[in-house]
Specification:
The protein has 229 residues and is of the alpha+beta class. 32% of the residues lie in helices and 25% in strands.
Amino acid sequence: MKLNKEILKSLIVEVLKEDEVMLEDPKESKYDRVMNILVDAPYGSVAMMSGQYPMGKASDLSPRTLKQFNARMKKDLEKRITDMGLEFERIGGSFGPNIEQSVMIWDPNQMGSISEGEHMRFLEKIEILNREHTQWGFVGGKKITAGPEGNAEYVFTMYKIDYDNEMGFKKDKDSKTTSVVLGDEDLQDRESGFSFIPGSDDEVKKGAKRIGKRFGMDLYERMYEVKGE
């Protein structure tokens, strides 16, 4: 094909368009995706929980049996979340002696601000998931607008399941609420007490870390182990 001036000009325009699309739509990392949800609060409610390590206690199962048990609990929890019409992002958690496979959950139908009743109905679904997997509790976030510009953010609360009754949960009395989301650079001195982006088995085999970038929020005045202390 003979390249005349017009054809060459057309080819250059197409290349520039492709470059423009690539610049406008870069691949978003999982860490950025999770942080954007926690910081920008696009949904009315959000929650974080695990289906593993019942009541947050260390297990006395053999390593092989524990791995099988945790894999089953993870699969069952994710299926139940989907059955409830909710969506989730896989995350990890390091709390006390346990490193868990966890989830961040939201309702795709709860876009924007919601009523207190709508938020409570969401939390009740999370409570059901906690009871089904014998979990001590969960983190729940409610969207609010704050500041003179009315910026959206979540108020995060640590909820404890009330196992003395058939249904019910309450704020853990030793915890505090917060709207501050901590990023990876804020949590490098922690031995535990943070969530993280987990590396897949394939990524770990290729040299990636099992515990990837960290994030979380301080819901207690002092409960996290700090390196060197």
